[in-house]
């Protein structure tokens, strides 16, 4: 049913990706603006403040917002050129339905909605409520994330809702929850420049969270030492005091190797450990195993580097840990994060100025979108869906019987596997492009072909939307209003800048109408996102991420409020754990005796090289937005395979050669980029491109048992020199998956 | 508030090209980026560098201009070539010690960084120095810079026998009084095979 | 100074010769002729001063040398014709900067050229019209005293001849309108424009055109009302503009043709040997250009010789930027290696 309606080049010629390069009215138009609207960047979790310039209900440019405290006007290239997605020729402006052999044809909203609702009802009545799944996104506002969770549980009554934050933040979140009982960065970013040593573990800050760079450099100006763990020498690693080129998946070797020295040398805070934590002894016993030889073997670096890291970190008066996908995208992602955080906890350098840790959220609302109940296992307020008290409270807020709220559903990867196996027949997705972003892309595409009905809500026809039966044109961030929660845990306001073009609608209106047509209108009777916020605020009351005391007015006036903010007038909580109280029943923080174990697929004779994947600075996630912006594409037009000259020499590959990178699951043909800045046993391919250029053709569909995050950062591949590809996909523009 | 000035710290650059993208949004040259962003030698290093016009006190570009087309404003900003005068000879492009002016073949004229004169002349920061996420480009008061940086700002350079003073400052360690420019290469000699099997650090080392 | 006097004398001589010893000279236009002589002095003086600048002199002489090189001359002339059409007649290079700017400039330039082509010969006494002896309806035109044609009143050619200044005035006004429109709306232009260099010339051209049109209006529509006064005002605007010619923005009219010389210079450079950068080894401009630049720099007292005997001019601009960053980064590296922070 859901095979592509026509060939890909035809679809691309109609819906792009195509490149937008010139603002409305042309570059020469430099007159006065009607208004400049203070809002935030739609891209990553840093959520930088930005002002959009408006003329004629069109976004014509940007102006830095220097008064916003997080970024003070700073922006990465994505932020600078983000306004080019407004007035884009690829923009979807009417509902579409698939037309066999032709592609897609417009239809009326009423016809589209009638079809969507009848298919939901048909599938759910034939195969059961859970046979219709929902995939949502972490770039949605808090209000929309809340709405999606409620829509799934109340309007559709399916257990199977999950979101693409599953590919991003869940390992970090789960680890923090296990250790401290709270899923949030412990400190505001303003603590970074005050630390005397900073450990950056698996975070390519310069490319994935560029604004954080200045915080790091500022710390160095203040005399801090910088330690960076990464298999690649990233731009911040170049200037680090210590760069540890750890082997992908070997991070625990470094963390535990450091801790063993720190215990031996007395660089831990015994009093803090005794008074405020539990489980240290079991942890210490595991750490004991990480002798210099063992730690070095696991980490894949000389022990000397680990020792130097311990000498910098151990005795420091203040310290800060930053971690991101590099240690999280593993089948042991949660354990990696726990091991890293324990370096913080054991020194007691937490909950005070210049001391603590943060996880660098990747997606726009990576923090907030995982708190409002659109995860398969959560209800609003970061509540566990299997906790009876939580169910009771939320049932009260929603005014539904507690037993009508479904239980825990499938997370993103298992959900797609259930589609592949025919257990889930129908899918609604919003703000998610899994054919590019999920691992083992060939499998994912095959799964989508199994669906009986698929409705996709998006503003561009993404590579995934090509499989849809109905596509509904939703809204860009600047076409709707609401709040997001930034990397710091700061709740901020996105303002409506322009109205959606053509027949496109605000996402929440689409969802609420489907709910109404499903007969649940009275539960989704919102006049605006503000109504949803008011309900969300109550739903989060008493939960971990408590927004109850917030109002939009206060958020505006105070440039954002940090949760928890449990009652009106509460100033918010920029820094957690100042009182050394942790969110476990015993009030203590917990150590865990995590131990290194191999990744699911280790290199072998047949596939002897490690593939690791990641981002480049000018693109965002699946690229469905940034591959449509000419200036950003020009900056990094197509994926390249980074490899060390020593490896290249062994394989007979020269810089710029086409190479085939191949795993047991799939391959890409891209050009080689031979650089000394990557480990010789590892190659790197960025993942923002689709089809024949998708790094996720190779990655493995293995997930962490606790967080269910996929193992993007390590799989086994072989690399060989290849001919220039000649298939039709390769001849497309690079923005659409071609290669040059 | 005392006057804000432009400070550059090449070593902070992360190569993100925000400056390049933002430069093209400046009204005096909208759609055309004037700033340079160089990748020093990607095969060896991830080092990158931005270069804005340093706005020399006695600009060599203006001195070698046959058409007398390069002018300095009273506040010391060296402007793009005067369009009626510039004859596109590229003398300035080839003579500038910092490699700043750009010859635009399509219009047969030189254009260069003018410190976003539409912005800086009315007290706003230049685009590049507003957005730069690394602080490699900063527009701030002398007092702010001295308070927040470990190095010192200097504006004195020497290229061979030629001493140059600039309006834009560069951040250097405290012992340095002038930047004496000699030719420096990133040498491409392969690192020796390490004795320790895990010593990938040595293999990743860049040598200057 | 000498060149100014020479230019002034040349104009005086041209007037004397062209008007057959002032026999064809129209005394009513003497103030115009006088101002022109003064402008010629100013232009000659300014041009000579300009040529004194070392870079200008090098390229001016080099340009002519290349142009008149016997081997290149035929192709040079062909090339000249081509760029004359594109750059002078159509002014395409301005269109590429901005269409609005081009529209304004094209109307301004051709309005002025047309007007100058009529008024200078008239005020110099090179051209005169008189009624034919046999018919009041026939006008005869003389150039340098030699009859060059005649036409009947009321014919299109007559209308054109009598109204050519009005046409040019309207063209100039269109150009002024577009230029003012642009300068009033374009943020970039508004930032860098200055009254004396960018707005004053437009005001002068506007004044000339509008007072000129008033003269026509006075003659044809108002039976010569205030004609004398208007013609004096018009004369004042023209004379002021003529006096402004050598000093302000209008000097580019005389300077700009140097671009053609640069064109030949670049061509000759491209055909000759190229200069490789001593840092990256890649050619970055012509040997000719680098050698001439070194000469210019010597004349200007710019000392790019390095201590090791190399010359900074031999480093390409890209390598200069890279080298600068490596130098600055190296200062920090040296610092941290010594353990001082």
Provide structural commentary.
The complex is a heterotrimer of chains A (740), B (208) and C (341). Chain A is an alpha/beta fold and 740 residues long. Chain A contains 24 helices and 28 strands. The longest helix of chain A has 19 residues, at 109-127. Chain B has helices at residues 18-23, 60-63, 91-95, 117-120, 127-131, 142-148, 200-204, and strands spanning 4-8, 36-39, 48-51, 102-104, 109-111, 137-141, 152-159, 162-172, 179-181. Chain B is globular. In chain B, a hairpin with a 2-residue loop joins strand 7 and strand 8 (162-172). In chain B, the strands form 3 sheets. Chain B has a 5-stranded mixed sheet. In chain B, strands 2-3 form a two-stranded antiparallel sheet. Chain B has 2 domains: 1-52 and 116-208, Alpha-Beta Plaits (2-Layer Sandwich); 58-112, 2-Layer Sandwich (Alpha-Beta Plaits). Chain C has 2 domains: 2-260, Fumarate Reductase Cytochrome B subunit; 272-337, no CATH class. Chain C has helices at residues 2-18, 30-52, 54-68, 73-89, 92-95, 99-124, 156-185, 187-192, 195-221, 227-244, 252-255, 258-271, 287-300, 317-337, and strands spanning 127-131, 138-143, 146-152, 274-276, 283-286. In chain C, helix 1 (2-18) runs antiparallel to helix 2, helix 3 crosses helix 12 (258-271) and helix 6 crosses helix 7 (156-185). Chain C is elongated and about 100 Å long. The mean pLDDT of chain C is 87. The interface between B and C is large, with 70 and 71 residues.
